[in-house]
Amino acid sequence: METNSADNLARLYGELFVLLQQEEKLRQETERKLEKAKAVIDPRKQFNNWLKTNSGQTWKRKQFELQGSMCAACKTSLRFEDAVVHHVLPLKDFGSAANKPENFKLLHPGCNLAIGTKIVDF
């Protein structure tokens, strides 16, 4: 009888070990999928990817002309190569809703850093 109990206990421990390994694999797979999902829906990455597209570059060129080659913040001359896109409504507070061209202005890099995530009326 004791041998049977010992065998059953050994078998149960073996099954438990297998289940724990499977659970760990599932946990790791879930973490990988969550990281992948975060990368897909990350508003900053969405914005950066859009800005690299023809559509993003076309918008930037048109906005540059619309602003008269001037920084929207300090109203001084701005070179196209130096212009950075500023989110009027901050990306950190508004997420994907802030990723709309009507929410963008072109600024000097320093002006953009000085404003940061404050909401400024241009």
Automatic annotation (TrEMBL):
GO function term, MF aspect, one: zinc ion binding
SMART domains referenced in this protein's UniProt entry, alphabetically: HNHc
Matching InterPro entries: HNH, HNH_nuc
HNH nuclease domain ranges (all copies): 59-113
Gene3D superfamilies, per the entry: 1.10.30.50
Protein name per UniProt: HNH nuclease domain-containing protein
Organism: Planktothrix agardhii (strain NIVA-CYA 126/8)
